[in-house]
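Please review this one:
***
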Amino acid sequence: MSDYPKLNNASKFALFFFRWFCNRDLAETIEGDLTERFEMRCKNYTASKANRLFIRDVLLLFRPGIIRSISITQKLKVNFMLKHNLLLTLRNFRRYPSTFLINLIGLSTGIASIFLIYLWVADEVSIDKFHQNDDRFYQVYTNFKTPDGLQSWKGVPGLLLEEIQTQIPEVNTTVATTDTHEYTISAEETALKVQGKFASQDFFKAFNYPLLIGNPSTALSDKSGVVITEKLAINLFGKTDVVGETIKWEFWDRGRDFTVTGVLKDLPKNSSDQFEMVLTWEFYHNDLIEFKNWGNFYGRVVVALNEEASSDLITEKLDKIIDEKQGRDQVDLMLVPYSNQYLYGNFENGVSIGGRIEYVELFAIVGTLILLIASINFINLSTAKASQRAKETGIKKSLGATRGSLINQFLTESVLLSLISLVVGLGMVYLFLPQFNAITDKQLTFLFDQNLAIAALIIISVIGLFAGAYPALYLSKFDVIKVLKGKFLNTSGGLGRKSLVVLQFALSTVLIVSVIILSKQMEFVKNSNLGYDRDNLVYFEREGTLLTNGDAFLEEIKTTPGVRNATLSGFMVGGGNATGGVDWEGKNEEARIQFWEIKSGEGMLDLMGMEMVAGRDFSSKFATDSTAIVFNEAAIKAMGLEDPIGKTVTHYTGKKHIIGVVKDFNFASLHNQVEPTLFRFQPQETNF
């Protein structure tokens, strides 16, 4: 085993296992193929993945035709002993039904829990991994320099697309996209709300979203083209062959007809971005964006690098572009592996500090603890019943049974119980999976594929051998003479069993305390003062005739019984648009502050229960409020303004005068600090 230094300990054990079971005539050739394949994988994959695949190959080789043969005498002996042990095992299950049922329920529940967690974890780690050239696929992020350090965000100037395409030849493919939003579309007599986005021409070249109908190279080349999913095509037209059909897209007061240029296969469930249609970036950039400059971070850019390209080199070139275009060193650009964003989406000072991966690790630990508790419970019950099995063991020893044969019998009982528990546990998984999907907001499916089969084999082996090893070794060492004379009194299992009991209770306590802490955390989130009144608020979007008759509708709502007040609002939980395009007198040119931007109607701050620290709310009584702006405390502090009321700032839309300062409030996770936020008086672009 020392000949293969790249193999980790688990792979070395697998190699030892292979040499033990493999036919001697085949061993040398197959082992050579195994190690050659392993070395090739080390060049294309990480060392951990190559080792995992090596172990999988060894397990798949454990089959008839490769396993070494044994003599007829050995076969008869093995068959006889196996039947004998199985018969004794079934008799013991029937003789001690309560112990059998307790162990069965405990192990089955543990197995069901770990399989459900396994399905969830496997789904989480597979998110966005299906894209081609995943190891060279990156999202461009912006690091804004603030007084508190770097603030990372995936928004970049939309003008960056053309610059990358013309100035960085090491990038194979560049795609500009937007986030996915809800839009209204209609065709013939059908109108639907769908999730859609905008993307540049090479979108289907970079992303592995195959088209059912259409050319991926030209589907987004026509400004009036749109690509829809097959499910949406059926919902709109009742068929999938819809290339050339017309749909109408509507958003606020904008509307336009688009021609279907492609039909996309329904997106895989493990895609973090779930959309139903893709419109062209050319339409978005040229017709919808009013402020096209290097201070407006309205785009999302993804790049696929050439094989020889270095991400560090590309980052340097991106920084050079942004510095030249902005004329000052206020922001940096960085590359983040596209498939890493889902699990490692939290950044601090320009460095990933985790994200959903923390929940994945936590679930994996919880599943392991549950299975460990169930296994310890099995060990404790087996040793607790030692006195009932003592005479049986003593008689067998007196008749010539060796300790090895007794160990085999007890291990057979353990493995068989594990197998039965596995079957029951898988049945529980199948039964409770719909409820588990509802709780986790997933669409997990239970398919007994190769990976699941390997996982089941590992679980049976681990539980059967681990949970049965201690009882087997403990029961098989009884002194024959003392047992037959009835002098066997020690049924406690000694220090080992006591230690297991302590460990079992400790693990159970950890899980119970964790659940209590989680419950308290949920209660804290539910009852925390977020800085605004979130109770009894109803929010819905303005569309259709409400875009032109909004004032009349609003007055009608106010007179509805049970309604205390109503107004127009652009406030959204979780954030919204963000901008760095704000300047003011005395601004530090070395720092760029990113502001959340919320559009407001008259009296919105008062209706939301937000407390004014200084100044006032927006009001239609003041004609000058069309150029007014309100900041929160965090924004005023970051800007370093004193006595801000009445002062003028330069917004990317023009000059604005400050009329108020609102007390800090939370609209994102309580883990995050309150970020700078501004309100603009734009009732024509708000909702109810």
